[in-house]
Structures are given as C-alpha cells and as structure tokens.
Amino acid sequence: MRKILMVLCVLAHTVLYAQRKVEVKGKVLSADNEPAMGITVKIDGFEKISFTDQNGNYTFNGIDTGRYVLVVSAVGIKPQSRQIYIRPGGTVVPTIYLSENRSALEEINIYGVSNKYSKKSSPYVAKMPLRNLENPQSYAVVTKELLQSQVNTSFDNALANVSGVDQLWGATGRPGDGASYYTLRGFTSQAAMVNGVVSIASTSPDPANLEMIEVIKGPSGSLYGGAAIGFGGLINNVTKKPLDTIGGRINYIFGSFDQHRVTADVYGPLSKDRKLLGRVNAAFTNTGTFQDAGFNRSFFIAPSLMYKANDRLDIQLDAEIYQNKATNPLMVFLNRRRELFARTPTELEFDFDKSYTHNDVTFKNPMANIRGNAVYRMNDQWTSNTTVSFNQRKSDGYFQYVMFLQPDNDTLIDRFAADQDYVAKVVNAQQNFVGDYKIGAMRNRTLIGVDYLFQQAETHNSPYVLVDRINTAYDDPNYYTFNAAKIDAAIAASNGAETNNRSRNGVFGAYVSNVLDVTPSLHVHLALRMDYFDNKGTYDFDADTTRGAYSQTAFSPRAGLVYELVKDRMSIFGNYQNGFKNVAPIVQSLPDISGDFKPQQAEQWEAGVKLNLFNNLMVLTASYYDISVSNITRPESIERDGQFYNITVQDGTRLSRGVEFDLTTAPMEGLDIILTYSNNSSKLTKADANVNNLRPTEAGPRNLFNVWASYTAHRGLLNGVGIGAGVNHASENLITNSVPTGAFIIPAYTLVNASLSYTYRNYELAVKANNLTDRTYYKGWSTVNPMMSRNILGSIAYRF
Asked: Of the chain's two ends, which shows fewer C-beta atoms within 10 Å, N or C?
C-alpha cells in the first residue's frame, strides 16, 4: 500500500508540474503593420530564445506560469520589453509593434539568410495589402538589392530580370511617348506608374530612387483603368520611403564609354520623437557611346517626407525632379511599303558604329513629379488611402529619324529632323477605402475606390524636314555635315506647317474589389471597374478649331481563385482578367456607316502555381496565360453601285498565349539566384490581309531566358568577397513582318555578364562586365537598334 501511495504522489506531482508548463506565443509587426521576420524574442530568466517567422509569429513551449519580462531585439533596431503574465493553459502575448517600419528593417539587413531578390507581399498590385500566395494575379519584382548586385545603372536593363519582358525601343525623348517601349506578354508597355498612380515621363526612370520595380502581368483594367497601361500588364515603380533610422549610401560608378554616375541616398528621423522622417535620393549620370557621337547627361533628385501624426494618420510628400541633355539614339527605320532587299542587320550595308547624328543635335526632357499620400486608419477594420499626384514632362530640342524610304534600294537613307517644344501635364487623384473584416467565419478584404485622371499636352513643333540623303554602302562625305545648323537651315527653308495645338482628356473611374476567404486556404477574388473617358479634343491654335472630341464608357470585370495546397507555402491559382483601350471615332467614306467605335477589349485566362518555401528562401511563380483581344479596327473595301469604298470596321481579333517562370532563391548563406523564362505565341487572327495570321512586330522575341547568381562570403579568409554571373538570352525577333515587306529578322543572342565585389565594414567595391563576350546584338520594333558592346564598370560605395 505504501508503494502505491508513493507512486500516486509522484504521478500527482508530475501532473501538477506538467500543468504549470505552458505554451507562450505572439506576433511582432513593424511600425507599418507588416510582419517582422528574424526578430529575436527572449523571456528573461530562461535560456530559450525564439525567432519570428515570415508571418512575425514566435512560440515558446514548456514555460512555467508566472510573471516575466519578454524582450524583442535585433541588430540595428531599438529593443523593446513587455511585462507578461503566463497563465495556466497557455498565454497569447498582445502583438508587439516595433519602432521601425518594414523598409527600415530590410535596410539594416536584420534577417541573415534571406531572399533579397523577392518580396512576398505588395500594397499596390491589388491596391490592398495581400500576400503573393493569396493573389491570383501573376507579378514579378526587381528589388534594389538585385540592382546593386548587378551594378545596374539602367532601368531598361533591370527589366531583363522579369519573364516575358523585353525592350523594343530605348527612350527617344520625343513628344507624347518618349519613354522606352517594352513588350510584355506580347503587347507594348511603358513604365507609366509610380506607387500605383499614373506618372508618365519622356525618358526612362532613373533607378536611384527605386525600392523595387513591380511588373504586374495581364490586362489590369479592373483596378488600373485603360488610359496608361497595355494589355500585357503594367510596370509600377515603387519609390524608397523615409526611414526612422539614420543611414545612407554614397556610390560612384565609372567605366567604359565615358560612363560616370554618382548617387546618394540619405535617410533618417527629422524630429526627436521620430514622427517626422526624411529621405533624399540624388544621382548625376554621364553616359557616352560606343559610336562616333552621342551622350546622355542627367541630374535627378528625389526628396521625401513622412509625418506620423499619430497612431492612425501617416502623411507622406514626395517629389522627383529630373533634368537631362542627350543626343538622339540610333534607330534605323525600315521601308514599310515594299519588299525589303535586306532581311537581317548584317545584310544591310550599314555601319552601326556610326551614330548618324552630331553631338550638338540634342534634346532635353525635364520632368517633375509631386505626390501627396495620406493613410488614415479609421478603425481596426477600415483604412483610408488618399493620393494626389502631379506630373509635368517636356520634350525640348531636336528629334530626328533615320529612314530607308527609297523604292529600289536599301542603301540610300534619309535623315529627317524637327525642332520640338512639347509640354504635358498629368493630375491623378485617387481615394481608396480598404477593409479587413469577417462575415460569420469568413474573412473579407474589400477595396472601394475612385480615381480621376486629367491629361493635357501642348505642342509647338516645327515641321519635320528632310535634312539630307546619304549612301550607307560607303563612307559618304555628306555623313559628316549633319549638325544643328544644317537642321535649322532646312527648317527655315521649309514650307511645311508647324504644329501648334493642345489636347485634353479626363478619365473618371470607380471600382470595387473583394477577397473572400471561404476557408483559411481558399480565396475568391471579384472586382469590377466603371471607366468614363472624356476626350476634350485637340485645339488648333492657328485655325482656332477643336477636333476629335468624344467620350466612351467601359466596364472591366475580374475574377480569381486561389487555393493554398500547403498553407503559406504553396498555392494554385486561376484568373479571368479584363482590359480595355479607348478608340476614337472617325469619319467614314459613306455617310450611312457609323464611325463611332467601342473600346477594344482584352480578356485573359490564366492558371498557375506559386511557391514560397523555407521561410521565403525559395519563391516561384509559374503560369500559362491566354489573352484574346477583340474590337480591333481594320480596313475593309466594300462595293456600292459598282464603286469600291474603303471603310474601317471593328471586328479585328488577336491572340497571345504563353508560359512564364519566375524563380528567386537563397539556398545558402550568401548565395542569391534569380532565374526567369518565358515563351510567347502571338498572332493577328482577324486583321488586314497584309498581316493576317502573322506574328505582330510588337510581340518581340518568342523565347526569353535570364539567370543571375551572386555569392558573398560572410566568414573566413574570404569574408566580404563576392562573385556574380549571369546570362540573358533572346530568340530571334521579327521587327517587320507583313506580306508586302516580308520578314526582317533580328538574330537571337546570348549575353554573358559577370561581377566581382568586396565589402569591408562600410565600404563596398565592385567590378562589373556587361556583354563580356562582346556580342554584337540588336533590338527593335519596325526599327534596327544597335545595342552597346562590351563595357566594364567599376563601383565604389560607402554605407553609413
């Protein structure tokens, strides 16, 4: 009996002791309500330490009940402590908010082994905070860390890291659409968004102020309208934000072809209570050329202020000011009216080492962006987000065309030029209400928004004049006589009319979107937009007349489904997305045939898989898409009473289908890899007989492949030494493709790039070789554009 009693006493003591051992868990968020991963969490008096996961969660097991002090800390952040009482049955600690926002945590690199080339969430893609795994839309990001790893000074080159994107034209600076053109899922696109609002430039953005580039894929009319985006998707530049820690980075890059670039990034609190934060990014760039003439010189500055009025209200003011002076990049226009004699760049008797311009034939593209944003947390469920943006851009100077126009040869080339004076203004106001609430057991995230976009352009341009005609088959002496004085003389002698006009249009949009969590793993997305486009027409100052006024209304629905096969790790998704483009009316040759048209419509069906494994160390998006476009106008000839009339009908169609693969991974400490691949099949399925059933020239290369890997040692004798290498590949590109001309083919190419770097304390040294094998290659879109030969860059940076 005594033994039984002893056993019972031991068991009772064990049970009572076990009941005192409980679980403690909680969450750590940044100041801007984002999960803080990699934060050290400790309970004083215990040797156990926990680290927050990708969702900011931490857990302790086997903790005795009682009162304790819980401490959260990490290198570079302000430690915080909380008094907690651990009760029997377990304790959930109230959420701890850090003083630093998410950007600051990333800036001071608290995470150790992390995927620097990926972001797992975005507030802009869906216009609400949404994790990538919950979003049925494909998108890819290019982070500032990737740009630094590649010693990247060019926005155009940065986009080579995204599947399905390829540069067609570099920035021309010309009026209206002077920024670079890209193909995206087979359709043209330009970088026309900054922080989710319209911001158009006449040149490529300077990457100095970029936190990341978001490429949001597929028709996106339901959230972004149709005034500034293409059917293949949109490019949204996310700018750097003010931080509540003091720091910065100064960088000097220099290299081949007289390349010099100095950048500065300085940030920190401007008040003792850290309510007022500031940041300034600035850059000066000089780029020469591998040709006999040409340069681009620019200055860029971007100040930013953030005021945290209280726990509910944040106000941010941003500005971006850009000044430049540059020559015209060489773009050789092919004859579009007859069969081409040359079908590849090598068959053209053309010296691409010549620029066909002069260093005094220049243009300027000053630009200013001013944005204000206010985020007000109305309550625990609803947030108001208000943005007002003003953009002004200018094209001022000489713009030239180099064109093969002769009917019987591809050796005589015409050089045209004009003196341009163009100013455009854009005002975009956007109000969004974002809710996060439950109906029953089902979570809803709702977006209700309106926006207004106003655009005005005023043009005072000279006529385009033929300056000279030269023979490209030999070293024509007249080649060297082209300059600004010769252009001025040709304009003065011309009888052509100047262009003096002003165009205006406004777009009002209203949209609603909802993400319904049917279960914690099943997410249903629905969205609808109404867009009213009001074109005020173009006013001719000389004739005192206005023409082209019209209005159109479009509706754009969207639906998506996401199922997380493994919660927070793997999801499969499908979507239906819609986009639209306004079509202006025309005057038909017959009065009984209407010249009023409907907006073009693009419909996408897409399905794919997304992975986020090993705490964000491997991120993958792979998908198949099918985009069909309807309501395309095309010419048609009809017969009336024995006579033929040319009219325009709106029954044209087009298809674009493909697969895309975007992978970023950090498989071990110091190693970061990005790999992308895309295949696109595009065809005009009902169009003018000259191009029907052919691949559109804007579709670009059928296959694109990119890989970049960088490794930096963090310990041992090689501590701080880094190496990077990558490959860019594009298949052949049909830049002219019609029955009258035949096909002109830009050959496939593969570029090899490599870098070496060394980091010691706050200093960073790097050497980068672009086009290491000195491959001759071209891009284009009805043009032949020679690209830069091998160039070597050196980089010296200091971080503080």
From this structure: N
- The first and second tokens of residue 556, run together, are 């754009």
* Rounded distance between C-alpha atoms, residue 157 and residue 678, angstroms: 17
Dist CA 156 CA 257 (whole Å)? 18
- Averaged over successive runs of 10 residues, the pLDDT of the chain (800 residues) comes to 45 41 84 77 78 80 82 73 79 80 55 76 91 95 95 94 96 92 97 93 92 96 91 96 93 97 97 95 97 97 97 96 96 94 94 96 96 96 97 96 94 96 97 96 97 97 97 95 97 96 97 97 98 97 96 97 96 97 94 94 98 92 98 94 93 98 94 97 96 97 98 91 97 97 97 97 96 97 96 96
Which helix (H) or strand (E) covers residue 655, if one does?
A: strand 643-668
DSSP code per residue over 530-596: EEEEEEEEEEETTTTEEE--EEEEEEEEEEEEEEEEETTTEEEEEEEEEEEE-------SSTTS---
The answer to whether 580 and 608 have CB atoms below 8 angstroms apart is no
What residue ranges define each of the domains in the chain, with the CATH number in brackets? 18-104 (2.60.40.10), 121-239 (2.170.130.10), 247-799 (2.40.170.20)
Non-local CB neighbours of 78 within 8 Å, separated by 6+ positions: 98, 99, 100
User: Structure tokens of 107?
Assistant: 């800036």
Question: Minimal CA–CA distance to 175: which of 365, 330, 331?
Answer: 365
CA–CA separation, 734 and 466 (whole Å): 28
Supply 363's token pair: 């243009």
Residues present in the chain in total: 800
pLDDT at 64 (0 to 100): 80
390 phi, psi to nearest 5 deg: -125, 130
Q: Give the C-alpha distances (Å, rounded to integers) separating 294 from 286, 361, 748.
A: 11, 9, 26
Residue type, 465: V
Q: What is the distance between the alpha carbons of residues 327 and 289, in angstroms, rounded to a whole number?
A: 10
Can you point out the beta strands (E) in 440-521? Answer: 442-461, 465-471, 499-517
User: Are the beta carbons of 162 and 215 closer than 8 angstroms?
Assistant: yes
DSSP codes, 697-737: GGG--SEEEEEEEEEE--SSTTTTEEEEEEEEEE--EEEEE
